[in-house]
Amino acid sequence: MLLEFRDVSVAFGGYVAVEGVSLRVAQGEFVSLVGPTGCGKSTLLNLAAGLLSPSRGEVRLAGQPLRGLNPVAGYLFQQDAILPWKTALDNVALPLVFRGVPWREARERARAWLAKVGLGAFPGHFPHQLSGGMRKRVGLAQVLIANPQLLLMDEPFSALDVQTRQLMENELLRLWQEDRKTVLFVTHDLEEAIALSDRVVVMSAGPRSRPIGDFPIPLPRPRDVAEIRLTPEFLRLHREIWDLLRGEVMRAHARA
Prior knowledge:
Radius of gyration: 18 Å
Strand order of the largest sheet: 6-7-8-3-9-10
Helix content: 25-40%
CATH superfamily of the domain at 1-72 and 184-248: P-loop containing nucleotide triphosphate hydrolases
Structural class: alpha/beta
Oligomer: single chain
Largest sheet: 6 strands, mixed
Strand content: 15-25%
Number of helices: 8
């Protein structure tokens, strides 16, 4: 088991964001967290990254307690984390440079990763010269070049238009299929969660949020996210999960 939350709670002053969370993510598994706004999904990602410590309970990495920053995790945020004054090539190379790799070697490896995400013709472009989808590809290459064992993704495609979003979802699945990294993915979009994942975990409305449903997604791989949404099994899974999730969304709105 690569990642495990054992009876984890997180409190910010008197506010308890998550309480009694127990969740296991196996090596090579793609798990999505869904739930209403404010249910602690990003809190769990920050715990997995080691950016936050639990108030109670324990986060374990490969069977050992996680202390400090997670050394095997890569984090892709909702907002672009690329530097506006660096080219696409240099942005992708930066994680290697921070690890002591010489610039020349880092750029060579970054060039290969740009080609891998379909940006081989744009190494000298700055972020303002790239579309939103292209910037997401740069960000994805920047995370993956460091070869993390665990990929943490916090609504990374939410700001994109529908067509670009589906392209990026398929791009992510294509890259994931190559080496099956462990992924913990946060999204508000249930369709996205089902289309991408091996399992979808439903979080209750906050405060004191916790997992209340864990649904295996037995859809065949490889997948095309647009095509898979049209299948009867996808629609069945969507109805089943939404039956649970809908009540939590309504509860969250009632408390707002």
